[in-house]
Design brief:
- The structure is a homodimer of 258-residue chains.
- By secondary structure, the first copy, chain A, is an alpha/beta fold.
- The longest helix of chain A has 14 residues.
- Chain A is globular, with a radius of gyration of 19 Å.
- Chain A has a single domain, classed as Stationary-phase Survival Protein Sure Homolog, Chain: A (3-Layer(aba) Sandwich), CATH 3.40.1210.
- In chain A, the strands form 3 sheets. Chain A has a 9-stranded mixed sheet, with helices on both faces. In chain A, strands 9-12 form a two-stranded antiparallel ribbon. A two-stranded antiparallel sheet of chain A has the order 10-11.
- In chain A, strand 6, helix 4 and strand 7 form a beta-alpha-beta unit.
- Chains A and B meet through helix 2, helix 3, helix 4, strand 11 and strand 13 of A and helix 2, helix 3, helix 4, strand 11 and strand 13 of B.
Chain lengths: 258, 258
């Protein structure tokens, strides 16, 4: 770790007032200098959305006088928050970006729908070591106390070891008590998916509409996956890359006769 | 190719009335049976967003009597369109899903912000062979004529050869005339990024706001990248995966002392 306090960018996708980000800010204040730039409203399921055809507001939040860090409430998506933080708000490039703690899982295929992870990936694209944290509890009243120790350890480890270019971490924490958690497992993303089952209704004007509903189905029985780790009492850590090239398939494609 | 006409799902992120999707539909009607489920308004930059806390409308579009295919206009994101098409609209699983033709590039890092590609990825997650097509011309008046031959060939090739589980194709077409295009190149995603330069303004009420602006910077000089191919007159085809695990970094992470 640098002798100077590390500069930490904190963001999320549940919005700046969510209990998850409040816990994350608390933990980060024990580690370094903190700047928060987070959405002014919940952005769950936003994937890696950015605001291309609309204005973005980003206003400082007035904090109690004993607070020494800065917070900004942003009308944009989580990826927007990271872009605007690094380009407009922060005086220098942050040493790390942490996103979350998300209210709900971002394990397995959820990573591609996740605003929490999109913020971490956006930071990674900009060359900033980054971690997304999620707790397997969708409730607004979720208890994040048992997350503190793991969030702190993993953040300090990334500051100590660094991350290679093109890699960020996706950390998920099981909904367990501190004594029930067995430790940290490094994992791969399980091959699982959502089986949708839309809830079709008719509005008072007679027009049909849908609610997205569904069931998470994991047919990947590997014991090296994030799903296995979480189901067996571990905190899962998946290294995530944003070079999406399926390198293993390039040779095969070159054999196609278009 | 199956003897029965293939069933083709067509979608995009520029909206159902965009010229790009009209060209794509035209080409697909020469190949198979077509069902269109596309956003009712432009969704550029939506990444892999899904609608989790709002209703989704999906209404049939009345077509001229000589048209034998079906079209649906959907209030959701591109990923929503694929989910609702496969679960609610189509009578059987489509043989292929094509998305686009996007007005603007989805090469390199743009793939992570791309609604066009999120639709293709969503189809891939559901086990449907899928292709995203994009033309390097943001104009609403873009000329898609030279795309037809390549769109048809690549689609027929995917129907013929299939794609392995977990892989979809990201196809970008240069803004050139038919005779200027040198052919198809299989590529990897170039390591490039956007350097943001927000345009900060003040609204009539005195509150600051931003427009996202920036410049695309490619420092990846590899001649096997999509950027190289497009800059040298080729149609780029990148196989894209949605297992985001950085498998090469798992061993290293296991050596960390958390």
């Amino acid at each position: 770790m640098p002798k100077k306090k590390p500069l930490i960018l904190v963001t999320n996708d549940d919005g700046i007032t969510a209990p998850g980000i409040r816990t994350l800010i608390d933990v980060m204040l024990t580690i370094g200098e903190v700047v928060v730039v987070a959405p002014d409203s919940p952005q769950s399921g936003m994937g890696h959305a950015i605001t291309v055809n609309d204005t973005i507001y980003c206003d400082p939040v007035k904090l109690p006088e004993d607070k020494k860090h800065e917070e900004y409430s942003c009308s944009g998506t989580p990826a927007d928050c990271v872009k605007i933080a690094t380009q407009e708000i922060m005086k220098r490039k942050p040493d790390i970006c942490v996103s979350g703690i998300n209210h709900g899982s971002n394990s397995s295929i959820n990573v591609i729908y996740s605003g929490t992870m999109s913020a971490a990936v956006e930071a990674g694209v900009e060359g900033i070591p980054a971690i997304g944290f999620s707790l397997l509890d969708y409730s607004l009243e979720a208890n994040f106390e048992h997350c503190r120790e793991y969030v702190e350890n993993i953040t300090r480890s990334v500051l100590k070891y660094g991350l290679p270019s093109g890699v960020v971490l996706n950390v998920n924490l099981p909904k367990l008590t501190k004594s029930q958690i067995k430790g940290i497992k490094i994992c791969r993303q399980a091959k699982a998916q959502w089986k949708e089952d839309f809830d079709k209704r008719t509005n008072p004007m007679g027009r049909d509409y849908y609610w997205l509903a569904g069931e998470f189905v994991n047919e990947d029985k590997g014991e090296d996956t994030d799903e296995w780790a979480l189901n067996n009492g571990y905190v899962s850590v998946v290294p995530v890359q944003f070079d999406l090239t399926a390198h293993h398939y390039i040779k095969e494609l070159n054999g196609w006769d278009f």
